[in-house]
Specification:
- The protein has 377 residues and is an alpha/beta fold.
- The chain has helices at 16-25, 43-52, 71-79, 107-126, 177-185, 204-213, 235-247, 263-275, 313-328, 345-349; strands at residues 5-10, 30-33, 36-41, 58-67, 95-100, 141-146, 149-155, 195-197, 256-260, 282-286, 300-303, 335-340, 355-361, 364-371.
- It is 31% helix and 22% strand.
- The strands form two sheets. The protein has a seven-stranded mixed sheet with strand order 2-3-1-4-7-6-5.
- β6 (141-146) and β7 form a beta hairpin.
- The longest helix has 20 residues, at 107-126.
- It is elongated, with a radius of gyration of 23 Å.
- 41% of the residues are buried.
């Protein structure tokens, strides 16, 4: 019988339900919580979710969880977990820590006790009485305390899932790839409809839309930490990627356009799209937002314009929002989705949004203003 692991997909605030929907589409039963979604799966499922999830940050194995109000509780609780299942005697295993509303509030102490308990367990399991060498495969661990409840995890991902591997150049302040994918998935876009990003920057929104449109797994061209661990069956690496590759739709015609006023950013975006293998799927062009017009109908526009966070830039940003409103109101069949930290956006744009959704781009509160189009038959 194949071993089943308790797992969590971590997510940015506000995106947990999207991760849940993705897991549902992949046929995993799940439970949505703040900053994470729990589910169970085999070693193959761990790699599969790393390869497929577009909006999550990481996939972690929940090695164990228990209550602890004293350092003795913490030590014994951690030591009781089957660490030899996940770590060799020589594995390198740093321990990150977090504590919120708990008796054990000193994170450095929590980390040190957790590390000491794991070392003690491994020394007993491997019959070693000297220091552990820690020169083997890497395994990032984390101990999290919230209201005295301890969750100890092993990260299977490595660099966060937003690091798809296609972005060779970033330019200014780019959207993380998983956040860009979330913005696309929050729209009513379907791959048979036109998609436009009028402020494309390094091209991330358009590239993520093309990956979704072609059903290309976002983690297809990168590696994950789990693949270096001794207990992981290396044969699964090819199996999971071959299965993902077989689900990609390379025959569908996509209508995706992306513009930017800055010629240098357009060149960066073209380079990134080529690196993602999507060079022919997206039309990039140097164009100011106010100069865009179209005869197409029922399209979806997604924009992450400059927020005007720095002193003096807000006026310029609001001027752009006015221009956007003037252009986009002439396209009633298009749905428009605009992300900004300017909570007064609707005033500049000149129209109240159908819906607005609060999100966080990193630590910054941003709102996703949604204007739903009236579909033309």
């Amino acid at each position: 019988m194949e071993k089943t692991y308790h797992l969590m997909a971590t997510a940015a605030a506000g995106l947990e339900s999207l991760v849940g929907k993705e897991l549902e589409r992949l046929n995993y039963e799940h439970q949505v919580e703040n900053y994470r979604v729990r589910f169970d799966g085999t070693a193959k499922d761990i790699l599969n979710t790393n390869v497929w999830l577009r909006t999550a940050d990481r996939i972690k194995i929940i090695v164990g969880e228990f209550e602890a109000t004293t350092f003795d509780d913490l030590f014994e609780g951690v030591k009781a977990l089957p660490w030899e299942t996940y770590l060799n005697y020589d594995s390198e295993f740093p321990v990150a820590g977090r504590s919120k509303k708990s008796e054990l509030f000193s994170v450095p102490d929590v980390q040190a006790i957790t590390k000491k308990a794991i070392v003690s367990r491994l020394q007993d399991a491997y019959h070693i009485h000297t220091r552990l060498p820690e020169n083997g495969y890497f395994a990032q661990l984390e101990v999290m305390l919230e209201k005295d409840h301890v969750i100890v995890t092993l990260d299977t991902t490595g660099p966060s899932l937003f690091k798809r591997g296609y972005r060779v150049n970033k330019g200014g302040a780019p959207l993380k790839e998983n956040f860009a994918a979330a913005l696309v998935l929050l729209t009513n876009w379907h791959p048979d409809r036109p998609f436009v990003d009028p402020t494309t920057g390094s091209g991330t929104l358009a590239i993520e839309a093309a990956l979704i449109g072609r059903n290309i797994a976002p983690g297809l061209i990168r590696d994950f930490d789990i693949e270096q661990m001794d207990w992981f069956d290396k044969m699964l690496s090819d199996t999971v990627r071959d299965e993902a590759e077989a689900q990609a739709d390379y025959d569908r015609t996509l209508d995706i356009e992306a513009f930017d006023i800055d010629e240098n950013m357009v060149e960066i975006a073209i380079e990134n799209a080529k690196h993602a293998g999507l060079g022919k799927d997206i039309v990039f062009k140097q164009l100011a937002a106010k100069d865009w017009t179209t005869d197409k109908v029922n399209g979806v526009l997604v924009s992450n314009p400059p927020y005007g966070e720095r002193l003096g830039e807000l006026d310029a940003a609001r001027e752009l929002y006015v221009e956007m409103g003037n252009v986009y109101r002439q396209l009633p069949s298009w749905s428009k989705y605009i992300l900004t930290s300017d909570l007064e956006f609707e005033t500049s744009y000149g129209e109240k949004a159908t819906k607005r959704r609060k999100l966080y781009n990193g630590a910054m509160r941003v709102d996703y203003f949604q204007y739903w189009g009236k579909r033309v038959k």
